Amino acid sequence: MAYAAQIKPLIADSIDPRHVEAWMRCEHGTLDALSRSAFETAVADSVALIAAGGHQMSEMLAKSYGL
């Protein structure tokens, strides 16, 4: 499943959906099991982690997941 398509409408255009997905994968074993509400919360949490960790860390994390 392409999570980027589900993430994109929930974030600012300046945020890379691959980075959001990577941070979400750090916190959740599988994204398929998340309810819509939990998914949206995980997206918001991931955006905060991106802000704290920065672009370079988020890019390295995304690449580690093959994103």
Report on this structure.
The chain has 67 residues and is mostly helical. It has one domain (3-64). The protein has helices at residues 3-7, 17-27, 36-64. It is globular, with a radius of gyration of 11 Å. The model has no long low-confidence stretch (mean pLDDT 95).
Provide a brief overview of the structure:
The protein has 67 residues and is mainly alpha-helical.
Q: Helix and strand layout, with pairings?
A:
Layout: H1 3-7, H2 17-27, H3 36-64
Question: By helix and strand content, what is the structural category?
Answer: mainly alpha
Number of domains: 1
Tell me about the largest β-sheet.
none
In what range is the share of β-strand residues?
under 5%
List keywords for this structure.
67 residues; mainly alpha; 3 helices; 0% strand; globular
